[in-house]
Write a structure and sequence with these properties.
This protein has 2 helices and 8 strands, in the order ααββββββββ. It has helices spanning 2-40, 44-51, and strands spanning 53-63, 68-79, 84-92, 97-108, 111-118, 123-132, 135-142, 145-153. It has an 8-stranded antiparallel beta barrel. A hairpin with a 4-residue loop joins strand 3 and strand 4. It starts with a helix and ends with a strand.
Length: 154
């Protein structure tokens, strides 16, 4: 009886060893396929945290009833919750200085949408921020105009 148990145990060990090797080989192959994707795809928290801080840059603003002007901006983002950011910005053209506030929601990793408000000119509108490494493109639109600014971290 003991001899039979030993033979069965050895056969099971060999079969289990082969099965384990096949399972391990498949798992490593699957990991090799998935690992590059996991490394390249930023996590939501990581991409959102990159937005916080001070940024500056320039772009253009086109008024619905007026000229297109170049603007320079300094923008500060502060994290208010996991996916929500408060925004304060100061922009200047040759003819105006503007201070605006806003709020953004991360809708996809590295993409934020929200609203802005320029109380001194009674202008409100929508804003979209797309983060690409250390550069971001901010587009905004209101009934009184639209624009785009490219910012880099300060």
């Amino acid at each position: 009886m003991q001899a039979s148990v030993n033979r069965i145990s050895r056969v099971c060990s060999r079969v289990a060893g082969r099965g384990f090797a096949r399972v391990t080989e498949r798992a490593l192959f699957a990991l090799a396929l998935v690992a590059p994707i996991a490394v390249l795809a930023p996590t939501t928290a990581a991409s959102a945290a990159i937005l916080a801080g001070e940024w500056s840059g320039e772009g253009t603003v086109t008024q619905t009833e007026g000229p297109t002007e170049k603007v320079r901006c300094r923008v500060s983002y502060r994290q208010e919750s996991a996916k929500v950011y408060g925004v304060e910005a100061q922009c200047a053209s040759t003819s105006k200085k503007m201070r605006q506030t806003g709020e953004l929601l991360e809708v996809r990793p590295g993409v934020f949408t929200g609203s802005f408000n320029l109380p001194q000119y009674d202008v409100s509108g929508r804003v979209r921020v797309v983060l690409d490494g250390e550069t971001q493109t901010v587009t905004f639109k209101s009934p009184r105009g639209e624009g785009q600014v490219t910012l880099t971290r300060r």
